[in-house]
Write a structure and sequence with these properties.
Number of strands: 18
Distance between the termini: 41 Å
Number of helices: 5
Order of helices and strands: HHHEEEEEEEEEEHEEEEHEEEE
Structural class: mainly beta
CATH superfamily: Electron Transport, Fmn-binding Protein, Chain A
Helix content: 10-25%
Strand order of the largest sheet: 3-4-8-7-6-1-2-5
Shape: globular
Largest sheet: 8 strands, antiparallel
Number of domains: 1
CATH topology: Pnp Oxidase, Chain A
């Protein structure tokens, strides 16, 4: 199994890590879910989802349900029962054969695990996913808050399209967003690493800078796999999603990304930093329809 595709390998080298990341990936990226990941997904009230929409553009969305709505029949499969889809363009993407990226995140414990794979069944209100890649992420930059399943909180969804002042305020006030990316061959992947991915970005409130319809964020040090930027190296289209954890509004952005490489700092002269720039192509802000409520972590 190819752990990393050429875009990821190119970024690992340019970032100054050479071939050192490959053996780490071979240890931690599996084609099965370890038992602790199986238990983790089973207790969650929501997961983030990355998928390709009908135009082939990566989209970030969300699946929610009462804890236990994610079930693991065996280490190679995950089933989703009695779920609610949040986010425009996601329902249409949930068809057999579609590639998905899934991120389970429990912000109050600062745990997160990822799963990339293929939808192998979608009928009777149940999704069945076959695992291609399963791996954990470190707890860095996760803002602690507690999410609860509250179906009564979901009212009819209303979508406002276009980049406007309200969308800008959501981005300016955010301490977290999620980014869906895809390999150029994700619709028909030849390797497990050629699919769709979704990842988390977090920081202090205001960590995303806004200049007109361009958003910029520093690429903080992470697991060195560079799954997101590796995809962007080959395919600059991405989908961002912001959640207003007070109102429950969702903001989805279709963007074109550009990676700016920065001079290496004196403390790491062989390892340059990076800034991610996102040109907003489309914006959709959804009010209502999210059956979750967040509270401060205790």
């Amino acid at each position: 199994m190819a752990i990393f595709h050429p875009g990821e390998l190119a970024i690992q080298h340019r970032a100054g890590f050479g071939n050192a990341v490959v053996p780490i990936g071979q240890r931690f990226i599996r084609d099965t879910m370890p038992e602790q990941h199986q238990r983790f997904f089973a207790q969650l009230p929501f997961v983030l989802l990355g998928a390709l929409d009908v135009q082939g553009h990566p989209r970030a969305g969300l699946l929610a349900g009462a804890p236990g709505f994610l079930r693991v029949p065996d280490e190679r499969h995950l089933d989703v029962h009695d779920y609610v889809v949040a986010g425009e363009g996601i329902s249409e993407a949930l068809a057999p054969g579609a590639q998905i990226g899934m991120l389970g995140i429990e912000a109050h414990t600062r745990r997160r695990n990822r799963l990339n794979g293929t939808i192998v069944g979608a009928e009777g209100g149940t999704l069945s996913l076959a695992v291609a890649q399963s791996f954990g992420n470190c707890p860095k930059y996760i803002q602690p808050r507690h999410a609860e399943w509250q179906p009564a909180a979901a009212s009819g969804a209303h979508v406002t399209r276009g980049w406007d002042a309200a969308a800008g305020r959501m981005v300016a006030g955010a301490d977290t967003f999620f980014i869906a990316t895809a390999h150029p061959d994700a619709a028909r992947p030849a390797e497990a690493s050629h699919g769709v991915d979704i990842s988390h970005r977090g920081g202090e409130t205001g960590f995303v800078r806004i200049d007109g319809q361009t958003l910029s964020v520093a690429d903080y040090p992470g697991n060195r796999f560079f799954n997101t930027i590796g995809n962007l190296e080959l395919n600059p289209l991405a989908g961002l999603m912001f959640i207003d954890h007070v109102s429950g509004e969702l903001l989805q952005l279709a963007v074109r990304a550009h990676v700016e490489w920065l001079p290496p700092p004196d403390t790491a002269p062989t390892r340059p930093g990076r800034t991610l720039h996102f040109e907003v192509l489309e914006a959709e802000r959804t009010t209502g329809g999210l059956p979750l409520r967040w509270s401060a972590a205790t």
